Inverse folding.
């Protein structure tokens, strides 16, 4: 029988900050901690999918990064660098318009959540996402 992997995301203040995979329960994985995320206890953990394909974590990481999420992952899944680049390019070309639209929505939501911070810093919201 193939090993089942749980692909999950950590969410902090409504933003996706980490994508990972585990064979353990999500509660157990979170309890083990994350050395590079000191505030992990404040994060919510959500299941994305259960799969037998070990490369799915990398696909989710690439998707979220393409949407503009600033992930705190130290590495990008289990693939070699050349495989990651090839997969990212293929995934982006196949889903270009959906990714651009999701990224626009994410950036609008991000701005709305952080409007006060933008004001304090004197920044303006600019939709600098790729044009169709």
């Amino acid at each position: 029988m193939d090993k089942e992997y749980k692909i999950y995301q950590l969410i902090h203040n409504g933003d996706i900050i980490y994508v990972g995979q585990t064979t353990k329960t999500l509660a157990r994985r979170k309890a083990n901690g994350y050395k590079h995320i000191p505030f992990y206890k404040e994060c919510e953990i959500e299941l994305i999918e259960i799969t037998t394909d070990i490369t799915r974590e990398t696909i989710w990481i690439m998707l979220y990064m393409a949407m503009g999420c600033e992930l705190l992952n130290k590495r990008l899944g289990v693939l070699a660098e050349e495989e990651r680049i090839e997969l990212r390019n293929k995934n982006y070309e196949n889903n270009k318009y959906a990714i651009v639209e999701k990224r626009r929505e994410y950036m609008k939501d991000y701005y709305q959540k952080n409007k006060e911070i933008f004001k304090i810093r004197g920044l303006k919201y600019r939709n600098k996402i790729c044009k169709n």
Summary: The chain has five helices and three strands. The radius of gyration is 16 Å. The mean pLDDT is 78.
